[in-house]
Amino acid sequence: SDGSIRLHQMTSEYPLMQWNGSTKGQPIIALQWALTRPAVFFALDASSNIYIWDLLENDLLPVAKQTFPSEKVVTMTLLGEPEKANGLLGIVLAKESGQIDIQYVKKKWALP
Questions:
Q1: Taking CA 58 as the corner, what is the angle to CA 57 and CA 64, rounded to the nearest 5 degrees?
Q2: Measured between alpha carbons, how far is 46 from 4 in angstroms, rounded to an integer?
Q3: Please, are residues 93 and 103 in contact by the beta-carbon 8 Å criterion?
Q4: Where are the domains of the chain?
Q5: What does 26-86 look like in DSSP terms, one character per residue?
Q6: What is the pTM of this model?
Q7: End-to-end CA distance of the chain
Q8: What is the pLDDT of residues 37-95, one digit of tens each?
Q9: Any residues with CB less than 8 A from the CB of 54 and at least 6 apart, and which?
Q10: 93 and 104 Cβ atoms separated by less than 8 Å
């Protein structure tokens, strides 16, 4: 609820990493690992901002941020084919109006 993200290992109750203030205090409403690249995850905050984290590139801050100011994004999910090495990765966004939007991710964040 405060925008903090914690990375846990299943064998410990304490996080391996913790990022405070990554969304400037906005609650995170969806978070998902990339299906095609294990070190990348996406976080959606309550202000319709998507943060892209690539832990191999930078483990302190998101490597990119995309804002959707025109309409509130209420949730997201990722689509892709992890068994294929084509690097195709998409983000499906559900907007408050009921509209669905699909955005494709740059290859550098999608390739295995």
A1: 90
A2: 13
A3: yes
A4: 5-109
A5: PPEEEEEE-SS-TTEEEEEETTSEEEEEETTT-SSS-SEEEE--SS-EEEEEEEE-TTSTT
A6: 0.88
A7: 31
A8: 889 999 999 999 999 999 999 999 999 999 988 889 999 999 988 777 777 889 999 99
A9: 37, 39, 40, 63, 109
A10: no
Answer whether 76's CB lies under 8 Å from 89's CB: no
3-state secondary structure of 110: coil
CA distance 27 to 54: 20
- pLDDT tens, residue by residue, 65-80: 999 888 899 999 999 8
Question: pLDDT value at position 53?
Answer: 95
Which residues lie closer than 8 Å to 99 by C-beta, 6 or more apart?
71
